[in-house]
Amino acid sequence: VDTHIHAAACINQKHLLRFIKKSYQIDADRVVYSTKEKNLTLKELFAKLKMHPYDLTVDSLDVHA
């Protein structure tokens, strides 16, 4: 069995961008980042980055397969 996979090839930049925007619309209060000290929701994470999901572009994601 060959278990050598490239996870980056599972989703392209356009689909990732669409997923982020859709997730923000539907489920912005979901915890997406967790440390011992605190949890951040998707909405809080974008606020901390001083961004809105619609500010993102395919180029700004800087994801390469």
Automatic annotation (TrEMBL):
- What EC number(s) does this enzyme carry? 3.5.4.6
- Decide whether keyword Hydrolase is in the record: yes
Q: Does the keyword Hydrolase apply?
A: yes
Q: Which InterPro entries does this one have?
A: AMPD, Metal_Hydrolase
Q: Which UniProt keywords apply?
A: Hydrolase, Nucleotide metabolism
GO MF term list:
AMP deaminase activity
Q: Name one GO biological process term.
A: IMP salvage
Per the record, the similarity remark reads:
Belongs to the metallo-dependent hydrolases superfamily. Adenosine and AMP deaminases family.
Describe the subunit structure: Homotetramer.
Task: Cite the PANTHER family for this sequence.
Answer: AMP DEAMINASE, AMP DEAMINASE 1
Name assigned to this protein: Adenosine monophosphate deaminase 1
Name the source organism: Homo sapiens
Q: Which gene encodes it?
A: AMPD1
